[in-house]
Amino acid sequence: MVATPFPLVEIRSVANAQNEWVALLLRAPEGSFDETTLQAMFGVPDLLAAVAPLDCILLLDSLAALTPPILKLLPPNRVVLAVDAGALAGEGVASRLAELQMDGFRVLLDGPLPADLPQPKALRSVARNLRIHGTPATGSLPALFGPHLAYGVDTQDALRAGENAGFGWFSGAYALDDADSAQDPQQHDDGTTRRRLMTMLALLSRDADSCELEAQLKQDPALSFHLLKLVNSAAFSSGTHIASIGQAISRIGRRQLQRWLQLLLYARQHPDGPPNLLLPVAARRGALLEELCKRDGGDRDEQDLAFMSGVFSLLDRLFRMPMAALLGDLKLPGDVEAALLAREGLLGQRLLLCETPSLDSAALEAAGLDSLSWWQCQLHAYHWAIQVARNV
């Protein structure tokens, strides 16, 4: 008997207005979720355990897949139902959604209501694909309901328009938008810390003396603070409290130091500033490429290079400079440079997979992957990125 392949599911992060991940948006690439797909996703505890404490938002075309056995698998406090508003035209759908809401599920009406159909009084929270349906007028969403979800938010301008309309949760590629209009010079430093980090990464790549690394770190109190906070966090601590930069370098080892410095490139630059949304994206890419390499049988050095490729893939957006100019002093291996500059080679191919939210079986097969392995690697990567975002 041939086993049914694991369904391909699109996963997108959802952030609030403070740039904090709050949920994952789950979408069936080929139509709505069916009962079999939801059973595969929620029939084992892997998904909800991996993404805790984040919520899961299901995009649903209808209620057909929400059978009693499936509803028993969905904890109302962790699962949000975003149902196509067009489904309200069906008999009894509005009352069924109201019942689900009474049972504890948060229900979002996704998209514009059908013509001449009144707004159900009990269902006032909404979801909207801004890429397809555009942004509602400023202040048009009911403030006492929500949080309202805007997805398909691909630019910083779309993000601001969504905030003005009353949305509180956002999903899309807006974190990668490097338009000049999106940057407020008053909210950013002069890049000194990040340049110092790049210098230290270059020192590590040429196996520089620990004293040189410590001297660089001590020049930047904010960077030293971030590093000590990170190495002592619950997510990464080895059980021994590290109280100085010298201890951090000597006890955690160069391999881990290099990894944490790579992540700290994306840390917030001011203690009272919002998190950098590029941080969890970079952490997810690094963890995903590393896990794929590990499953291929790659050794520790190969896994480190895979991780580095994922984390460094956003440096051009972070520094707002060409990637080639940034990589010049790091002396990276040729396959890493080929992946970062041209998405070439196995690392480049895998990096393209990381960057594509909706994949088909042919793309996975070409990369030597099956859908179950891809799902498991994604859960691993999202789990790691969530922990990083909460500790950096």
UniProtKB/TrEMBL annotation:
Pfam families registered for this protein in UniProt: HDOD
Domain HDOD: 187-385
Coiled coil regions, renumbered to chain: none
PANTHER family found in the cross-reference section: CYCLIC DI-GMP PHOSPHODIESTERASE CDGJ, PTHR33525
Name by which UniProt lists this protein: HDOD domain-containing protein
Native species: Massilia norwichensis
